[in-house]
């Protein structure tokens, strides 16, 4: 594709030359002959350091910002144009959108501290129910009716994302739901994605290692509504959630279509909620009449997620009645309050992805109604992530569970014992067992009839990151192994 058409209308100060580009990347290690290399200022290093390597590998053009251009001045061969953008990350994303071109016709995105993966998973199922070939993209990878491919990041880098969207469109996928992480939004990974609707779930503590303040974190999320949704797009929100007013203010300022859900919602108003085993019976008032829905999922938060997902599907064009009926067949996302097994004495074991204080509180509160005996939780906290959340997670566990076992999550480059100590500061009476498999086995061994165990923090993950190594590890497998051992004993 020609560079001038790739970069047209991006507001670059000098018109790009007519030059054929065979691909684009921001990682010098991925450069192939004929590629454009985007030299981006990173969180760890300045990408322009890698321009010589990119040129060696055959890069024919470089995209950067003013700072990169200043650093590269006088070092570039005349044959390689340097395109200078005000925001090189945004320019790269828009160029990637043009390079790959094809996207599923109807796409929605969801942001918020908790519930993104669940909402995206639900929207995909609702679209499928309505007969559309659909995908969801996020923390658990790309999911279609054909299966799941794990990606790594919640919101992939823009080049991978646009390549993936084109692949899905070519496969016949017409509908997609995307998770928009705050990192992804701030780093313009989603720019150029053509959305019809966006949703906000909630705001709690997360990623305080990356965003300087909670306001910065919120501002990153607001980009979905301020910058990414096109005029005429829809915003789905529960007005009862903290900071929903901030999302609504942006939506009003931009004249976007507002769709509200939940107890204070106008479009899908929740007027009744009652438990029935692991299901929940919902009464929902809508402008098209009242509906009684049996949601086959446990946990109050799944009601919020399901209504947000329904709002996204409706604002994307689906009929209200069909969408609400589809909620009756929803399956939870893997590792989100998932019942993984039962001990011979009837005690229940769940795996959940709560790795932040609010999520942990909600997950444990959701399990309390099913607990006749004691509620156990096995928790840890990830290394190289916000250290401030560790004692808060310990405290949430101590407040909501009867027995707390503190173990390792993904220690990454940190000393696991130091992470456990920080979690234990909030849960001083907890038992400490560093080895995650041993912690799960001990918890399962202690379960008596009527008890419930929640193994929290890793959800769908299939590895444990220790240093730079990913060791095979799955909470699901560890729970099943512990249950098998118990049954044989
Ligand atoms: C902190 C962070 O978000 N980093 C992301 C960011 O990297 P960066 O640009 O800051 O990287 P950097 O290491 O400083 O390098 C600067 C530039 O030099 C380039 N480089 C570097 C080395 C080299 O040899 N050659 C080279 O060209 C890099 O490709 C990059 O363009 O942009 C990259 C491309 O989009 C991302 O892959 C990378 O995600 C890292 C791997 C990561 O761990 N991110 C996590 C924290 C993350 O994004 N998480 C969110 C939220 C999860 C959730 O709550 O669900 C997610 O969306 O997954
Ligand atoms: N609406 C919600 N409100 C509060 N907690 C929730 C909500 N939805 C899910 N949770 C909790 O958060 C955990 C993660 O849920 P989910 O994966 O759907 O969210 P996420 O926003 O994608 O998280 P991440 O940013 O880690 O990918 C769940 O296992 C559950 O404990
Ligand atoms: N997307 C989140 C997931 C955290 C999951 C938890 N198991 C951990 O490793 O901290 C992050 O990268 O911060
Ligand atoms: Mg997620």
Question: How is this structure best described in words?
Answer:
This protein has 489 residues and is an alpha/beta fold. Helices cover 34% and strands 22% of the residues. The chain contains 16 helices and 23 strands. It has an eleven-stranded mixed β-sheet, sandwiched between helices. The model has no long low-confidence stretch (mean pLDDT 95). Magnesium ion is lined by residues 116-117, 138-139, 154, 179. Adenosine-5'-triphosphate (ATP) binds next to α5, α10 and α12. Its cofactor is Mg(2+). Its EC number is 6.3.2.13. Catalyzes the addition of meso-diaminopimelic acid to the nucleotide precursor UDP-N-acetylmuramoyl-L-alanyl-D-glutamate (UMAG) in the biosynthesis of bacterial cell-wall peptidoglycan. One of its GO terms (molecular function) is UDP-N-acetylmuramoylalanyl-D-glutamate-2,6-diaminopimelate ligase activity.
């Amino acid at each position: 594709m020609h560079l001038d058409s790739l970069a047209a209308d991006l507001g670059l100060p000098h018109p790009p030359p007519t030059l054929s580009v065979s691909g684009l990347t921001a990682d010098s290690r991925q450069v192939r002959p004929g590629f454009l290399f985007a030299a981006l200022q990173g969180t760890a290093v300045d990408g322009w350091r890698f321009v010589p390597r990119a040129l060696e590998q055959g890069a024919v053009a470089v995209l950067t910002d003013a700072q990169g251009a200043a650093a590269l001045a006088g070092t570039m061969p005349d044959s390689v144009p340097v395109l200078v953008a005000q925001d090189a990350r945004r320019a790269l994303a828009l160029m990637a959108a043009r390079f790959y071109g094809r996207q599923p016709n109807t796409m929605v995105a969801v942001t918020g501290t908790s519930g993104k993966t669940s909402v995206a998973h639900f929207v995909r199922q609702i679209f499928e129910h309505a007969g559309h070939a659909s995908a969801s993209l996020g923390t658990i990878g790309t999911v279609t009716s054909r299966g799941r491919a794990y990606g790594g990041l919640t919101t992939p880098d823009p080049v991978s994302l646009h390549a993936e969207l084109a692949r899905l469109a070519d496969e016949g996928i017409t509908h997609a739901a995307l998770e928009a992480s705050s990192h992804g939004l701030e780093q313009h990974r989603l720019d150029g994605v053509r959305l019809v609707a966006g949703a906000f779930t909630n705001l709690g503590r997360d990623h305080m290692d990356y965003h300087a303040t909670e306001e910065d974190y919120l501002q990153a999320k607001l980009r979905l509504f301020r910058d990414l949704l096109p005029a005429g797009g829809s915003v789905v929100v529960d007005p009862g959630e903290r900071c929903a007013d901030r999302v609504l203010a942006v939506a009003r300022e931009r004249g976007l279509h507002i769709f509200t859900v939940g107890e204070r919602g106008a479009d899908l108003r929740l007027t009744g909620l009652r438990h029935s085993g692991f299901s929940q019976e919902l009464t929902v008032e809508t402008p098209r009449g009242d509906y009684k829905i049996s949601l086959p999922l446990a946990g109050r938060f799944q009601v919020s997620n399901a209504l947000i997902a329904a709002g996204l599907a409706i604002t994307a064009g689906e009929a209200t009645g069909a969408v609400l009926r589809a909620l009756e067949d929803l399956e939870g996302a893997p590792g989100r309050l998932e019942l993984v097994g039962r001990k011979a004495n009837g005690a229940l074991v769940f795996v959940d992805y709560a790795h932040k204080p609010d999520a942990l509180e909600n997950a444990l509160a959701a399990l309390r109604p099913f607990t006749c005996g004691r509620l156990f939780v096995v928790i840890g906290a990830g290394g190289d992530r916000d250290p401030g959340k560790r004692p808060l997670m310990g405290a949430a566990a101590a407040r909501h569970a009867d027995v707390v076992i503190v173990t390792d999550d993904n220690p990454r480059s940190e000393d696991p014992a130091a992470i456990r100590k920080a979690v234990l500061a909030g849960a001083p009476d907890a038992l400490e067992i560093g080895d995650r498999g041993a912690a799960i086995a001990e918890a399962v061994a202690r379960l008596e009839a009527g008890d419930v165990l929640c193994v929290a923090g890793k959800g769908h993950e299939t590895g444990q990151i220790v240093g730079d190594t990913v060791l095979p590890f799955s909470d699901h497998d560890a729970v099943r192994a512990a249950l098998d051992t118990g049954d044989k004993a």
